[in-house]
Amino acid sequence: MTQLTCFKAYDIRGRLGIDLDDAIAGRIGRGFARALGAKRVVLGRDCRASSKALAQAVAQALQDEGAHVLDLGLSGTEEMYFATTHFEADGGICVTASHNPMDYNGMKMVRAGSAPLDAEGGLARIRALAEGNDFGPAQNGQITDISTEARAAYVARVLSFVDMAALKPLKILVNAGNGAAGPTFDAIAAALAANGAPLHFIRMHHRPDGSFPNGIPNPLLPENQPQTAAAVRAAGADFGVAWDGDFDRCFFFDHAGDFIAGEYLVGLLSEVFLAKEPGATIIHDPRVIWNTLDVVGRAGGQAVQSRTGHAFIKQAMRDHGAVYGGEMSAHHYFRDFCYCDSGMIPWLVVAELVSRKGALRDLVARRRADFPSSGEINFILPDVPAAIERVRARFQRQACSMDETDGLSLDMGKWRFNLRASNTEPVLRLNAETRGDEALLQTSVAQLRALLQG
After folding, report:
1. Regions in the chain scoring below 70 on pLDDT
2. pLDDT tens across 122-151, in order?
3. Domain parsing of the chain, residue ranges
4. What are the start-end ranges of the E strands in 126-280?
């Protein structure tokens, strides 16, 4: 039995030719169909150079298990989520490595109803079957191209989140990063235009290109933000939007080109949905929380914390019937979008919000001042557990409270921080925040940095 190293906490990620290749992808495809008893499976892929061949291997494997493959072709992960529910499939797979380096690829997978696979049950069962590789003779499944029908239905659902009559003339810069977002965005923009929406778009790095000539699309990295920021300013845009490779995350820049940290978007979107459904539940992750708790509390909602990661947030959304969930890493989840994350719905909601209430910069200014945060700081360390223990030993006795929902979170009264190991990369991530004290934030981060680096 061959141990497969591409299985992570809630999806598949691996280095091409080392952790993942076409043969391994085929074994995972057969394992997926057998573990779920799947007879109908939606399949999509991003634009990476390796994704088409990997998707073909998965499609053949699913057919070998007797499944009917509903093929989306080039698409975003969220299009797979939507189509899995819309077409009443038994599961869905998107071949994507999102924002990982060039030599990586992977898969995101859901079961019927676009529900996440739990690590202990579904994912472990698929892994055991794929590692055993004892599937028997191939059967004769089918494959059907559903790309046109699926995208039309997806666009209609996404547009249902916005009141087009409320939209005012706005200029919006959009940066697809040469990922999969371009064609899907164009379909949404065409539908907006057909309905008379007065939005003008400036497209940047729009054509899908698996060689990523402008770098891997990961707008969360500070070094990737200046190019979009400069383009927003040069265009005189009202705001800018940038996506990662499979566009299930979107990132915002105000009209001055300043990047808006994800937790402030979580607060904004929480306000929008609580205005529509007073008293509703909002799910959030444990990394940066004070702004979200304040916003949700003031709006009369219920805030529920979940472990970081799409599988965990989605399950919490379902468990609590939450209307919206957000992670500071720019994943935004919507009950009325199969409880799944979308990178297209948020910018549409923000466009309506800006149309109604004014500049995005002004909408987040008070929140930034009241709850300044460090942004996510990544450390590559030889011994991650030892580094966390150094921090615990230094701060735990002084802490007002400790939470270990996901990593180590300590509330120090006037400031707090979260330390967690990445679920998908060999990295330790730090986030810190204060109550209106930027100087304290800088001092606290410096202390933590020194401890972590030994």
Report:
1. 1, 119-120, 423-425
2. 999 999 999 999 999 999 999 999 999 999
3. 12-147, 160-370, 377-452
4. 142-145, 170-175, 199-204, 239-243, 250-254, 259-260
Pair 53, 60: CB distance under 8 Å: no
Tell me 110's DSSP state.
Answer: E
Q: Find the helix or strand (DSSP H, E) in which 267 lies.
A: helix 262-276
Average pLDDT of the chain?
Answer: 96
pLDDT digits (tens, 9 = 90+) for 382-423: 888 889 999 999 999 999 999 998 999 999 999 999 999 876
Query: Cβ-count burial of 270 within 10 angstroms (0-12 exposed, 13-18 middle, 19+ buried)?
Result: buried
Q: What are phi and psi of 272, to 5 degrees?
A: -60, -50
The yes-or-no answer on residue 98 being catalytic is: yes
- Predicted structure pTM score: 0.95
Residue in 313, 430, 310, 306 with CA at minimum distance from that of residue 380: 430
Catalytic residue among 50, 51, 98, 342: 98
Q: Residue 450: how many CA atoms within 13 Å on its side-chain side?
A: 6
What sign does the CA torsion over 110, 112, 114, 120 have?
Answer: negative
The answer to whether the 160-370 and 377-452 domains have the same CATH topology is no
CATH number of 12-147: 3.40.120.10
Determine the Cα–Cα distance for residues 400 and 367; give it in Å rounded to an integer: 23
**How many angstroms separate the Cα of 264 from the Cα of each of 130, 144, 245, 269, 294?**
41, 42, 22, 9, 11
Top-level class of domain 377-452: alpha beta
Token digits of residue 150: 């699926």
**What would the two tokens of residue 157 be?**
């659902």
Place of tokens 């065409």: 190
Fold of 160-370: Alpha-D-Glucose-1,6-Bisphosphate; Chain A, domain 3 (3.40.120)
